[in-house]
Design brief:
This protein is α+β, with helices and mostly antiparallel strands. It is built from four helices and 15 strands. The chain has an eight-stranded mixed β-sheet, with helices on one face. Strands 10-11-12-9-13 form a five-stranded mixed β-sheet, with helices on one face. It starts with 11 loop residues before the first strand and ends with a strand.
């Protein structure tokens, strides 16, 4: 796909990983997707910028559990004003986890929780717009909210982020909505109340594109990951879920 110079407002614009083991994380994703890691200095707490063929695709930051949960991917939505969006989130049943803050000259970030309990980041871009390529092999391809409170979540994101949405399914077996801008689909929302394991909260999932799902899954295991959901054909493509080397 052509390079992306910005994300539409309300759309996923960046992802990063809170990792308990930066070294293992770097080795895993460089080996799996061909990413290149650039490890920052102490002024950015060793933040890792990942690129694919020179294009920004993700980040990672060391976490010992005191600065947020370890070994989870975080998704950020593009916003025009992080302060105003955080305030709107609170006014519509959400919660501010990390108040808006400046990240050098790159932009402003914040972290909130939606009414269903899913955590989501906010990114108000300045010099750094976020993910520069989507949908190519080894890059993020799709973003999806798995929520235990489908109706409340949809109303929240529509109000706070101005989402335009399209209902793809509305039966007891399959309730799914996509976030759209014109003809472009930006993300999805799934009613996961019937299949999320007990104790697993609502969450945002990230899917990465690959030319060969089965081969990539096998490579993930070779690199220390584990299979969560084996590869299966769906109407949308061949999907699988795995953990990385840190779980």
């Amino acid at each position: 796909m052509p390079p992306r110079d910005h994300a539409p407002l309300g759309a996923p614009s960046y992802i990063d990983l809170m990792t308990s083991d930066p070294g293992r994380t770097i080795a895993f994703y460089e080996g799996l997707f061909g990413w290149t890691a650039d490890v920052g200095g102490p002024e950015v707490a060793g933040y890792i910028n990942f690129t694919k063929d020179g294009a920004a695709v993700a980040g990672a930051m060391a976490s010992d559990g005191t600065n947020g949960p370890a070994n989870v991917w975080c998704t950020y939505l593009a916003v025009a004003d992080a302060e105003a969006t955080a305030a709107a989130a609170e006014a519509n049943g959400g919660m501010v986890i990390v108040p808006p803050m400046a990240i050098m000259d790159l932009g402003f970030m914040a972290f909130i929780a939606d009414p269903g309990g899913a955590a989501i980041g906010l990114w108000q871009a300045a010099t750094f717009p976020g993910i520069a390529v989507l949908g190519d092999p080894g890059t993020p391809a799709w973003f999806e909210l798995h929520t235990r409170d489908y109706d409340a979540a949809l109303a929240f994101y529509q109000e706070v982020f101005g989402w335009d949405t399209r209902t793809m399914g509305d039966t007891s077996e399959f309730r799914y909505t996509t976030v759209i801008e014109g003809d472009e689909e930006l993300a999805g929302v799934m009613d996961a109340s019937g299949h999320l394991p007990e104790g697993v909260p609502s969450y945002w999932a990230v899917y990465f594109a690959t030319d060969d799902t089965d081969a990539t899954l096998a490579r993930a295991v070779e690199l220390g990951g584990a299979i969560v959901t084996p590869a299966e054909d769906t109407p949308y493509g061949r999907l699988a879920v795995a953990t990385d080397a840190t779980g």
